[in-house]
Amino acid sequence: MFSSIDNDKVPELTQSDTEMVQEDHVKTPEDFETTQEYVEHYFADAPVMARVAYCESKFTQFNDDGSVLRGQVTPADVGVMQINEVYHLETSQELGYDIHTLEGNLEYARYLYEKKGVQPWSASRRCWSSDHLAMR
pLDDT higher for 13 or 86? Predict the structure, then answer.
């Protein structure tokens, strides 16, 4: 049998309790003011990937008109991480990632990074590599 609860003895949530709950919240792009902040948060454990995003797209997922950013040289490259549709669209879809959204673009980029490191972004290596950054 359940006993009744005395509401006078139920502790209230403190600010630190609330902060702990908020820390467990999975952050979404809406939690950040800029795409750059979200990308840097998303790749906090792999900062080279944030540098790749800067070099590939200047942290841009969408154009001003709302369309997904496409590469100037290779229009099949899409989004903040410039994922190439010719090589990766089918696999990204099979894995459940929509590379035309910011979240899906970053999730698939992490998948690629975990499989191949930074090799898929070797064309922009001069921009993001630590060797090049050290020379600046």
Answer: 86
